[in-house]
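WARN no homologs supplied; continuing
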Amino acid sequence: MFSYKNLSIKKLTLIIFTGLYLIFLLFTTFNLYSYSKYESNKTEKLIKNFSISFSNQIEEKINNISDVSKYPLLIPEINTLHQILRDNETFKITNYNYLKYICEMMLIQNNSISGAYIYDLKGRGSFASRNSSHYKLINPLNESWFQESLISSSATSIFANINSSNIFDIDSSEGENLILLTRKVIDINTNQITGMLLVTLSAEEFNNILKYDLPFNNETISIYNSTGDLILSTNEGEIKSNYFDKVNFNSSEPSIDYIYEDVPYVICSNPINTPNWVVINKIPKKDAFKLDDLYIIFFITNILFFLISSIILYLFFTKRIFNPIQYLINNMSSNSIEKNLKKNFQYDKDDEIGKLVNSYNNMKGRINSLININYKNQIEQKELELRQLQNQINPHFIYNTLESIHMMAEINDDLETSTMAEYFGSIIRYSMNRKINTVKLKQEMKIIDNYIYLQKIRFDQLFTIENIIPEELLNCEIIKMIIQPLIENAIYHGLNECDSNGKIIIQGHHIDDNLLITISDNGVGIDDEKLKDLNDYINDKNNKFNSIALRNINRRLKLNYGETFGLEIFSVYGKGTSTVLTIPYIIR
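OK structure emitted
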């Protein structure tokens, strides 16, 4: 079976360089693809932005015309207008002139308007026009735009592809293509329609927008209504688009698609809310997406340059690196690291291989140091255990003596002495059990309760102790006899100088994966300089204190759990002191 381990470094180097070249080729190709994709996305964004801008212009123009059509409804004499439109008699000359005046006021408000008209419900009307003032109006009652406007649920309606012959009494060949906006005149007092307003625009106005500054060659912009009828187009031969059926009129954003007719095209459709039209922008794909020729040349140059560089580097590596590495391998194979940790490997060059050799020698030195540190920690742990054993002077004698005192006190009806002997005996037996190093927190707290009872008797209720460790923490595993020395410290060093009202609080917290046990007192406290020295002392940074209890607790925690755990002391002089044990949160 083939294995890379059997290959020579020279062959492996060749494989690596070949692989690197292939990776570079793939990366560069992907880069070219990403660039083309970026250009494609940028072009699509340009097309969409252009379509949005164009649609906004159309919509803005329609809205402006719609605003103009509101003018007659906002005049103070609106009731006069309703009365004239309701009159069954032929328009009087004064009324006709009044309606014509209103039309002229609408006409002058927007230069895009080609004509403004007012009709009553019998089809009689008056108008003002820029270029058709000599024409005669026809009765529009039979015209589809007039009928649809009356029955429409909307106040305004828009119609496209309307010839002026549908408004004036002229031949259709003489008329021009118009876009109509109609608005019903409604009496708000009776909610009845009294007439119809009509504003017309020349289709040429929109053609000017369509043809203005198109960003792509051979670009065709067309406007369709919701039924697919072509309204305007920059291509005079344009018919209904094959893409129209895919248009989503409910979309608020333009969409991009690709179709193939005689050539591939990019299609961008963008609905216009007012009116219900859609703009379709069709661009030949070859005109829309073009890659920079300079980037293609740069791509080919990079491929050739990396190929030549790879060959040169391979020849250099073969001559300059292969032989030294082989030499290093031979020398490393001839020695056992475990048996030769103190002997450095010799290499006389200060190049990269030399640095590798130095790293190898440093690694051996670190391994040797770690072994020594491990031995030192093991010896220190044994010394701590030995020191603990030295303190256990004849434990059976002490326990049996206490049991005798307990029995004698009961015989003499001295219950307080009996209880003290019983509690002290349980403390001695608990602390001298060498088979158990870790216990549950509730076991430790039971012994602490016995110890507190004895201390309260001695100090005649000088202080109170409050235990607020949550119930759910009592099953956590801790090292035996690490809380009692801290309470003893709080009593003797914190509260001993207080006359009364001394208080010690024992708290427990589960934070992340750690268990924090805090013993706080309201005693005399420690000044800042002494507090710093004390924290340094328990971490073996000085020897300014004689007490070994705090240092011993800190060492036991670090030896059992690691350097991140241990004991820390906080204090404010004159206010009190807190000692915090940080151990892993362990429940077995």
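The chain has a mean pLDDT of 80.
OK
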